[in-house]
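Predict structure. Chain length: 131.
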Amino acid sequence: MRYPVLFALAAAGCATTAGEPVNEGAAARLAGLQRTGEVKTCLNLTLLNEITAVDEKTLLIRSGANNWYVSDLKTRCRGVVGRGARIEYSTSLSQLCRNDILRIVDNTNGFLTGSCGMGSFERLEPKPAAE
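Prediction complete.
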């Protein structure tokens, strides 16, 4: 089954240092969450609501109403933090899984700008409120 457009990425490309684009909004959301150590190899496609690139090696994923996961990509995914980028992938399953290949496409011209292998999905939970 081919999924030509998974999500349009709303990523404002801001650089923390030269060559390291970061989506500051996604980075701020990730900073409010903590890793649980609970790792899944696949997520059900019907529950995926949002995939946002934090940087070229980290994706923040919302599944269901308010379940959050982080995926540390196996390699850099060039172009994933650019404006107008979208993620495409193909799968024969009803799940997005570790090792699935993501393709990053520029919506403006339709050109492939990069590709990378999906990492595992680590569940996140809100950080406890500071007292």
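Summary: The helical segments are 24-31.
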